[in-house]
């Protein structure tokens, strides 16, 4: 059935596949099927030009489609992943990194290199030199879990 539809549609079968993939992109999350759909439409353009040639068999068409899908995906990722965007919130979603430079008071003593502070509404585990409760400390770094402090 599928081979009959492809034979009847000819080069337009790639256009149909591309449009179906673009439509599926609207239903599914993410931005991935659009690049594969662009590869299918580009293969359809080539099929319109090369359909009657002996070289343009289904094997070559599939290889060209796969190559164009990969190329369009890579170009699309490069186009969409502009990481040099300037923002007014550079520490957004990096709460610990935004705390570097602030001062706080120890809620629990730092014993054997570990203690706790309360900053705003959160208790944070801290690393640093042994210090008693109530000591003012300055946050010098964040490793993703713990804050490193020194006496202020």
Structure explained in plain terms:
The chain has two domains: 2-80, no CATH class; 95-151, Nucleic acid-binding proteins (OB fold (Dihydrolipoamide Acetyltransferase, E2P)), CATH 2.40.50.140. Helix 2 packs antiparallel against helix 3 (33-50). The mean pLDDT is 87. The chain is of the alpha+beta class and 152 residues long. It contains five helices and five strands, in the order αααααβββββ. It has helices spanning 2-9, 12-27, 33-50, 58-80, 95-98; strands at residues 103-111, 114-119, 122-127, 136-142, 147-151. The chain has a five-stranded mixed β-barrel with strand order 1-2-3-5-4. A hairpin with a 2-residue loop joins strand 1 and strand 2. It is rod-shaped, with a radius of gyration of 29 Å.
What is the helix/strand order? Answer: HHHHHEEEEE
Beta-strand residue percentage = 15-25%
> Unreliable runs, pLDDT <50, ≥5 residues?
none
> Given the structure, what is the number of helices?
5
Shape: rod-shaped
Question: What's the number of structural domains?
Answer: 2
- In angstroms, what is the radius of gyration? 29 Å
Strand order of the largest sheet: 1-2-3-5-4
How far apart the termini lie comes to 77 Å
- How much helix, percentage-wise, in residues? 40-55%
How many strands appear in the DSSP assignment?
Answer: 5
Largest sheet: 5 strands, mixed, barrel
Structure class: alpha+beta
* Arithmetic mean of pLDDT: 87
